[in-house]
Design goal:
Shape: globular
Number of helices: 15
CATH class of the largest domain: Mainly Alpha
Structural class: mainly alpha
Number of strands: 0
Order of helices and strands: HHHHHHHHHHHHHHH
Length: 283
Amino acid sequence: MCATLSLVLMRRTLLPLFCLALGAAPLLAVDQASSQENSAVTLSDAQTLFYTGRYEAAADAALRLREADAENLTAYELRTSALLFQLKGALDNQKDKEKALKACAPCPRLMADFQTDTKLGQDVARSMLSAAPGDNEALFFLGKLDLNHVWLHLGTLGHRTGWDEYWEARRSLDLVLKRDPMHVRALVARAWIDYIVDTRMPWGTGWMLGGGNKKKAVRTLQDAVKIQADPFVHAEAEFALWDIQVRERNFAEATIVARRLGRDFPDNLEVAKFLEQHDRARP
């Protein structure tokens, strides 16, 4: 990965010099235009791509953002989430995860990118916390990046690893919520821990993981969607509530949430498909 980045940086540095030496001004102009286009990507662009289900494009946009700002924790978290959803899409319905992983052509690159960005983001968050232990946002993002790692390895891949990240995430999110009980993103992430531990882990393992409570998870998400927040923060809570209601086969309540999501993200094909199947009020 580092070698690849070095080659990319070398190309970007040397190519304009060669073009000047050769008098290739048009090529230099194209390169400058491309650079301006890359820098024009906004966080809102990347978030819109993510919540419309365009995960590959969202991951690429988030990469541009974190390349432009190496301390942009939101970009690291968004990129790892988008890469995680790409891997889930490729592997979730496969019984033999290892066999599916080996047969998945894009998966090695996705895995490598995921691991790289997770580690970089964790390092940035820990550095910020070392300088300012009371930085609640850095603490949240450390916990969220840890959880993305856990969901990939314990959930999607079925690997019995990620315990250290799990406990760090749980402690981090609990501390964030102790300081700010209305932190919507921390409420959502913590609700997922309660739900997954309660529903996906055997009782003994769940007890070792601090226990879970799916009813509490649903109540937490129902409260979280009522808190006034940034539109994309609110969307994360809505999508989490919808997902869990679908898992619980509570289709009536899920349909109500899906209608709101369909209004806000009409291009999301998964939401549109759900509404076609379950919303009898649709014409």
